[in-house]
Amino acid sequence: MRVPVRCPRAAFSFAAGILAVNISSQPVETGPQATAPLRKELSETESPARTLCSLIPGSLAPKSALLEGEAGGFENTVYWDNTCTGLTALAVIGQVFEGMDDARAQLNELLSEDEWKKLKGITQMDLWDCALVYVELGAIISMFIDCPFGDVTKTAQMMVADWLREAGGVRIRNNWVTGCLLQRAGVSTGRLIDFVIDTLAYKPTERLPSLECLAKSELRYWKYSSRSHTRDSRELLLRREAMLPTMRITAREFAEDIFPLPTITARELRRIGKGPLPAEPTVSFPQIRSVLSPGNSHPLASVCLEDVCSKVRKLLGCREMKLAAIEDQDFEACSLDYVELGAIINKHVRDAFGRTCGRILDMTATALTETIRSRRVRAWVSGCLLQYAEVPISDLIDLCVHELKFSPPVAWRLECLRRHSDWERGHRKQKLLTPEACLHQLLCGLDKKISLPQFKRLMLMSGREQVTYVREHFLSFQVSLKLSGGHKRSAAPPATQAIPNESSAATFGTKRRKPSAADGCSPSLTAGQGGSVTDRTVLDPAMMYCHPDDLSEFVDWVELSQQGPLQLTRPLRPSR
Question: Where is this region: Disordered (predicted)?
């Protein structure tokens, strides 16, 4: 129902005498204080050319992201007259307006002629700070109408998005701009509340501290229509207005101190502007409400929620106190076995061992060039939590197999490296190993920590290359286990099985070829050339070819066939 506004992506652009700063550049000082004039203090000796050079990416950033242009800069108007670009699903399904013309007429009557004139004179200086009550009322009106009072230029939109650090995306940016427009117009909040209640028939939540401007996602109509309406809506909005601070807050303060909070209390609202709000904890422990199916569509009937909760509480125990002390650098490296188990658990239970703050998700998603909703980002974060808490691998495998009924595939593929969940493939009806033994075998040799860039390179490998990587680590683990007497796990795989870099990723997993004469090696003689099986060119190790992996697989197969319980699930390569 929404009509998106497409913004061209340009590194630098000029509009109305305003110099647009590339959104990717990060200035040393994030912005001026709310009480200071929004100008760049230039010395008389500085030239405009030097100011322009300081904006080039890679050069020395200016002291402020706000610069004054030659024709007045941030005192120029940045209003874009595109009032009421569309109606949302809440307005269309709820039949709030008869049509677009009716919506525009209602908005035109809301503000006086003088207020519209003030609103259209908005500058970038007016976008830096805003009272939270205007942001909240602007967010409520924007729930029904897209751009109810117009918008600002593309350059100003980019600047506001930079101040907000992309918090909440376009929706939060538009709510902030709408609040600044209302504040610039000077319209009374009482008149806005009357419009929201009488015209839009808005139904607020009965939980007073709940603010629409802090919603992390767009409100769906079915969820909005299910809100109870037992109290007077006008009274609830007036009480909410009384709780909000009257002083202005900056866009940066809103993005860093207010919006990231999962919930905000009335006491925290009263503290806005009087001191820093309590920082969001790195890890929180939400209550497990349901067990999900592989497709996250409905709860699994075969899995008991009480058993899962009991097992998780038992595994965590006193480790919750330890997880509360986790730091950002603890999410920079993790072993693949924990990441794989975290991916498996996340497919059934969301945030079973804790939920991280948005800062950690953003950092991980940026390193992996994926979204924060990516299953691989969630798998990495969960693996880091499990690794920091030092939860035993065997206990996690027991949770996956017995409580979550996970049946690992026979194929040597890791769930944490898949872009999409693949539950239907890779399973055979008859397996040589039990699910628990199969999962143990899959994770053998993956206990060495890897960094986020290394995990990203593994993600970019093909399926065949990932299978080769996991199988070779399993075989090297078996060899090292045999050499160490079978009493402990190997600390790390050999250096020859390290993760390939970008230059070698293209050749990783390709078919091996035997050396030829062009490589400086003499080929073995054939019967037609007069050679015999006892010829030195055949029996001399320096003159024959045998790949080390073929030999290690053969030795491993012989040893495991004598032990019995653990067998390779895939036969050796056919002889060439």
Answer: 488-533
- Expressed as residue numbers, the domain containing 554 is 517-563
User: How many angstroms separate the Cα of 532 from the Cα of each of 122, 525, 539, 545?
Assistant: 94, 8, 10, 17
Same structural domain, 178 and 35: yes
Kindly report, residue by residue over 520-545, the tens digit of the pLDDT: 444 433 334 444 434 433 334 444 45
Report the mean per-residue pLDDT for the chain.
69
pLDDT in tens, 172-182: 899 999 999 99
Query: Is residue 146 one of the residues assigned to a domain?
Result: yes
Residues 524 and 467 in one domain: no
Q: Which helix (H) or strand (E) holds 356?
A: strand 355-356
What does the DSSP assignment read for 202-237?
Answer: ----SSTT--GGG-SSPPPHHHHHT----S-HHHHH
376 pLDDT higher than 80: yes
Nearest to 214 by CA among 158, 139, 134, 284: 139
Cβ contact 350:312 at 8 Å: no
286 found inside a domain: no
Bridge partners, 341 (sequence order):
none
Q: Is 167 helix (H, G, I), strand (E, B) or coil?
A: coil
| Mean pLDDT, range 81-97, rounded to an integer | 85
- φ, ψ (nearest 5 deg) of residue 131: -75, 140
Phi, psi (deg, nearest 5) at residue 24: -80, -20
Whether residue 501 is found in the same domain as residue 523:
no
Q: Confidence band (pLDDT; 50, 70, 90) for 208?
A: low
